[in-house]
Amino acid sequence: MQNKLTRRHFLGTAIAGTAGLRLQAQSISFPSGQSAATEKPALLGGKPIRTMQFPSWPKINDRDDKNWTQVLRQGLWCRLDGTYAKRFEEAWAQTLGAKYCLATASGTTALLTSLHALGIGPGDEVLVPPYTFIATVNVVLLVHALPVFVDTDPETFQMDAGKIEAAITQRTKCILPVHLGGSPADMDRILAIAEKHKLPVLEDACQAHLAEWRHRKVSTLGELGCFSFQASKNLNCGEGGAILSNNEELIGVCESFHNNGRGVAGYDFPYVRNGSNHRITEFQAALLLSQLSRLEEQSRTREENAEYLTKQLREIPGIRPARMYAGCTRNAYHLYMFRYDKAHFAGLPRSRFFAALQAEGIPCSGGYAPLNKEPFLKNTLQSRAFRSIYSAQEIAAYEARNHCPANDKLCEEAVWFFQTMLLGSKTDMDQIAEAVRKIQKQAALLARA
Ligand SMILES: *Cc1c(COP(=O)(O)O)cnc(C)c1O
């Protein structure tokens, strides 16, 4: 599997990895006394460790049906007419302990709206991690600001807070940490640096539903915090997003901007700013409201399974599960992330490790490629709009600063399991660990074949 796999590819592969075996939906039992690990790798024609599919996503029940049908039948499909969006916003704000919530069309539009509300624009710099989904960087470019990459802490996969201050310049206007994979970034240090330099913190919590830093929900720690409810996310309505804040004025600007710059909520026409339409629909909100009723329980299952899996994986030489910062009191486990060191696997390349794992019935991904090296970034900086804002020297100086060696290395070593794999049983986790142990035992054979 390549580094650059998209979520869609990954989900496709996750399903394809087991699709052919759908008919044999029971777990394999091994003859007594014979360990699976001594058997031939499935990649070389042996029996796979696992033939069952991992839990499907999304989960739906009658409540989703009822809410969805109600919106449909009532004919109030726009939030300016119905009540579901408002009700979801109240429920989500209450769940997180935030004063205000504004639902949006997506996580991307939540971030974009937030940057507008913070007044970020041409000539500004925003500190971002290079290890994130592309939207975190795209929104900065969309407001014609420069995304300045702060290298990654490979132990945690998060923005390295120890490298933030060195990246701050006169032009820095915002710190945009991502709680990648659902594990909180180092918020004590990030908030302290932000306060010292008088910079707002915009939290990208798009992967971190219910994650906590010192028992406070992420997205409520900075000035603004954003969520995504896109299909792959832990709370899902196909597409959707939200902005959380305790700042009435800022959320008011977000509200106005996302509703075509209207000065009041609703259909009226007093326009007070340049805006856009990033409203959520009632359909999305109705699904979120019903899905939300299961989020706590699902999150607990993910957390229990992830912790159980970590206990096994960390005992395997060459497998290093992502560490959490001391302030993390809850990890949302949108992703289960670890580093693979091929030196402990007879030099077996990571791509071959993926193939072997998938053959054993365990879907996996290599995660992100280094975003700071994406060719489109260079192209955007060379666009007419950017060249009219930034001089050639400014762009050259930006590019000279754009190096994240720790992240480059991490992108070569990372392995991900997807959140849905954590929604099943402890046996599922046993099988994941067993597959890794089996591959390690057979690594020399796999490397030669
Ligand atoms: C999913 C995601 C987004 C964007 O959310 P969409 O709802 O897909 O627009 C932004 N940042 C991160 C870290 C994400 O994972």
What features would you highlight for this structure?
alpha+beta; Aspartate Aminotransferase, domain 2; 449 residues; 3-stranded parallel β-sheet; Aspartate Aminotransferase, domain 1; 4-stranded mixed β-sheet; globular; 15 helices; 2 domains; binds pyridoxal-5'-phosphate
Task: Report on this structure.
With 449 residues, this protein is an alpha+beta fold. The protein has two domains: 7-56 and 295-367 and 410-448, Aspartate Aminotransferase, domain 1 (Alpha-Beta Complex), CATH 3.90.1150; 62-289, 3-Layer(aba) Sandwich (Aspartate Aminotransferase, domain 2). Helices cover 39% and strands 12% of the residues. The protein has 15 helices and 15 strands. The protein has helices spanning 7-19, 62-74, 84-96, 107-117, 135-142, 187-196, 248-258, 282-313, 350-359, 375-381, 384-389, 392-401, 405-413, 426-441, 443-448, and strands spanning 100-104, 125-128, 146-149, 152-153, 158-159, 172-175, 202-204, 212-213, 216-217, 224-228, 241-245, 319-321, 328-330, 335-340, 414-418. The strands form five sheets. It has a four-stranded mixed sheet. A three-stranded parallel sheet has the order 3-2-6, covered by helices on one side. The chain is globular and about 70 Å long. It binds pyridoxal-5'-phosphate. Pyridoxal-5'-phosphate (PLP) binds at residues 106-108, 132-133, 135-136, 178, 204, 206-207, 228, 230, 241.
